[in-house]
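We give the entry.
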Amino acid sequence: MMNIDLKGEKFTWFINPRNGFVTREMLDRVLVNWEWRRLYQNATLTALLVIGSNHYPLVLRLEPKEKFERHFKYEAYWEDHEDCEKIIKQGWENNENKRNKWEKLQEKFKSCKKELEQWSKKTFTRADKKINQLKEEITKLQNQEFSEQQQEMIKDLN
């Protein structure tokens, strides 16, 4: 049996500090045999952020991450913004000279999509980026020596 190397964190478990002392260990592992490893050569094991537990969740990925094409999604919350209607009209009125009505309609949709995407990036903060930033802060705090103040900061960030 062999251990799959852990990406990210060095530890999979910790105990809250008592008397200012923190214990961190690598308790959780994924063991495989050579046959399995040969079949899944791209397998990776990653420790995620600890939230609400003292065990780091482990994720085993058998295939490498693939890039995927993002599809346009109209967000309902855009309608609450005072500029949304103006942006849609602006995109709709950008019209190239196309021969038939179908091509004109397709161009209008593409133009609206482009305008909305650019406007959204400038206007709205992305929650996923903020969440990732907070996770990084939690990880930094968890990798330092614990203090009561740090525990409170981790609690607040969670």
Helices lie at 34-39, 84-93, 101-123, 127-142, 148-157. The chain has a mean pLDDT of 83.
